[in-house]
Amino acid sequence: MTTAVLSLLVLASALLNIRAEYKGPRRQVYVFKPLTVVLVILIALQTKHTTAMHYRQLIVAGLLFSLAGDVFLMLPRERFVAGLVCFLFAHLCYIAAFTTDGARVFSVWGAVILVLYGALMLRVLWPHLGKLKAPVSVYVAAILLMAWQALNRWLAAGEAGGALALAGALLFVASDSALAWNRFRGEFKGAQGFVLGTYFAAQWLIALST
After folding, report:
1. Using CA atoms, how far apart are residues 29 and 36, in angstroms rounded to an integer?
2. Does the reported pTM lie above 0.85?
């Protein structure tokens, strides 16, 4: 199955998942949310270049951890911390992937912007985190490091794959920021559509980077 066909299936499954989040039935969420990520994993497995094998393996590992995190977060009795840990490991896999080629470009301005953004998000969320202050702080650091390494990889190589990974990483940050705001600061209109839309797009772009 070609990447183009798989991408269309990802889009269809993602839209059905978002529709089910708003209109039900809930069982469709249990089908289409994991199915969308499984299809994204199949895209990542399309790579045939042997030089990209290690990169692809790390991206697929990250997607598998993401799949596990999705399952924990959509269960009838949500396991938020378990889901958070799964996504933490996903970002660690992505960080390893983005540094796998040995690139040594380090964007200072990128680091400054991401650190300031992370500090602002934690400042806004902090009073509402309760016992989750430590795990959320670690997660924020991990996802911002992931985005920074994606930026460094793109600056070092300047290739299409690097641009796709960077776009995916930034969309991941946007998705998780909206998720955190909606969960801890208060729900906002269209939250589910935005969170899921940016999340699926992020994973799709990262998979395409292989």
Report:
1. 10
2. yes
